[in-house]
Amino acid sequence: MEQTRRAVVVSIEKALIIGGGIAGPVAALALQRAGIESTVFEAYESAATDAGAMLTVAPNGLAALSIIGADKLVQSAGHPLHSMVMETGKGKQLMRVDALPGLPPSCTMLRADLFRVLHDHALANGITIEHGKRLVDIEQTATGVMARFADGTTAEGDILIGADGIHSTVRTLIDPQAPGPEYTGLMSFGFGEFTPDGRLSDGGKGDIEAMHFAFGKRAFYGYWRQPDGKHVFFSNYPQAEPMTLAEARAVPAEQWLDKLRAAHLGDTPGERLFAETSVDEMIVTGPMERMPHVPNWFRGRVVLLGDAVHAPSSSSGQGASLAIESAIELARCLRDIADPAAAFAAYERLRRPRVEEISDNAAKTNNGKTSGPIAKTLFGLIMPIATRTFLQPEKMFGPVHRFVIDWDQPVV
Fold it and tell me: What CATH number does the domain containing 91 carry?
């Protein structure tokens, strides 16, 4: 990739990046373009193969990926999404949102496929990724930082970036009093088989015409038809008592499926979808969580990135895209501002308002998913009116989806 000339003589030459999921490799590639060397340290012994949840990379995420030459790679690994349809549990359409004019459609894919694409792109561009490196401690000096790993090894650099996810170790090392993930009151389950090769069944386009999101009588659910003709669907099941992913997966799958079938009785087409599926097609993706506002994004030469500091719930459809944006913006700040603390402060100024607004709006959506049948009925009556006035697609999604980072603009 083309390397960007630094705006100033930068004292930051080597970055340690903790976490090899989404934000970590993107940050490494962006830092490389800014002329800063980095190494990515991943706790798992191999590249992530989590076959769990699907995710969406929105147009703003694709625009940010274009800066590191990864947008086309990501698009080729997923399916373009052209429309979203909000409907009642009975299948009555409340609102349809098509891809905004002038923007590419969002890209829907398995999380594992996004990990793979970014991991491979980083390696192809000479980024070093070390696996089996679980961070246990950090030591800072006036001129650098040392990372200590569970295997007894260490690494030294000028700065350390914590891109280690919503259960971040780096966040706790920066601030032992930092908040942890917040449970939204919903457990998530996915069904169906996502087959990327299925894009060939519709003449090679790989399109998903529309995703349907339904406010079922007892649980929110979504469904769409893959290009290969198979249905993929999910349920956000309200449960007051939080469970970890491990605890949720320890419950027999048959018990979860029985609960979901009961929750979607009377839903159209939810009742049929959940009745015809089997435990073999079910993925327990666990509690839906979000990060509350984190007071301290950085300390000294250590800074947080992506889900470690601003994970919205999956209701936002922006988790991956915001992490990608933040990785690019952090690299810009480190490129143009010599002092790490000043660079981190500029990065936080650029990112905090946007990510917190999107996360807070998604939290309001979660409240709608857990509301009772009376509230959902009222919602169904109000929505058609709202979509003709203040809930127009451009007003709702334009500020989020049209966001573009100007890589060549200096950060001051």
Answer: 3.50.50.60
Contacts of 360 (CB under 8 A, 6+ apart): none
- What is the SS3 assignment for 358? helix
159-162 and 14-18 beta bridge pairing: parallel
302, part of any domain: yes
Residue 366 lies in a domain: yes
User: In the numeric block, which tokens belong to residue 234?
Assistant: 């999910």
5 inside domain: no
Contact 80, 104 (CB under 8 A): yes
CA 207 to chain centre: 21
pTM: 0.90
Q: Is the pLDDT of residue 127 over 70?
A: yes
Could you tell me if 179 and 33 are in contact, meaning their C-beta atoms sit under 8 angstroms apart?
no
Domain of residue 195, residue span: 14-401
Buried b (16+ CB within 10 A) or exposed e, 269-278: bbbebbeebe
| Span 51-109, pLDDT tens digits | 557 899 999 999 999 999 999 999 999 999 999 999 998 898 988 889 999 999 999 99
CA 41, 43, 45: angle at the middle one, nearest 5?
105
Query: Is 318 contained in some domain?
Result: yes
Number of domains in the chain: 1
